[in-house]
Amino acid sequence: MDQIEIVPYSPELSPFFKLINQAWVEDYFSIEPFDQAQFDRPEETIIQPGGTIIFAKQGEQIIGTVGLHKVSDEVYELIKMGVSSQAKGKGIGMMLAQAILEKAKEMGGKEVVLYTHSKLIPALRIYEKLGFKDSDLEPGKYCRCDIKMEMDL
């Protein structure tokens, strides 16, 4: 088995951000306009406003991705964490989450928030193991989310 490598965003990897995330969003929910904007224009919607995207790569294959959306100078939102179906259950999600939290620290983040849904059990387990705590969910932020979590870095 090839070693897993965490690689930064580059325009050539943009299709994988869409492909991996669109698959899980469609499996559990439906694509919302903000999803489509992030899938189609990640540089404009995530990177240029001060966020980042990273990928998990095994050999020549991209098998996972996660992003950070800049909320403020000290707060980032963990967004769009997904692992390809053939790589699920191998710890890739945890590896991505740990790497993106380190990236948030490097970028000056003091806090990371995330919005998720109670039926995404594997993701919730990762977030809890990393130390994310439940927080009050503000109404209307995201239609599909019923949980907000946050973590001080």
TrEMBL record:
<dbReference type="InterPro" id="IPR016181">
    <property type="entry name" value="Acyl_CoA_acyltransferase"/>
</dbReference>
<dbReference type="InterPro" id="IPR050769">
    <property type="entry name" value="NAT_camello-type"/>
</dbReference>
<keyword id="KW-0808">Transferase</keyword>
<dbReference type="InterPro" id="IPR000182">
    <property type="entry name" value="GNAT_dom"/>
</dbReference>
<dbReference type="Pfam" id="PF00583">
    <property type="entry name" value="Acetyltransf_1"/>
</dbReference>
<feature type="domain" description="N-acetyltransferase">
    <location>
        <begin position="4"/>
        <end position="153"/>
    </location>
</feature>
<protein>
    <submittedName>
        <fullName>Acetyltransferase (GNAT) family protein</fullName>
    </submittedName>
</protein>
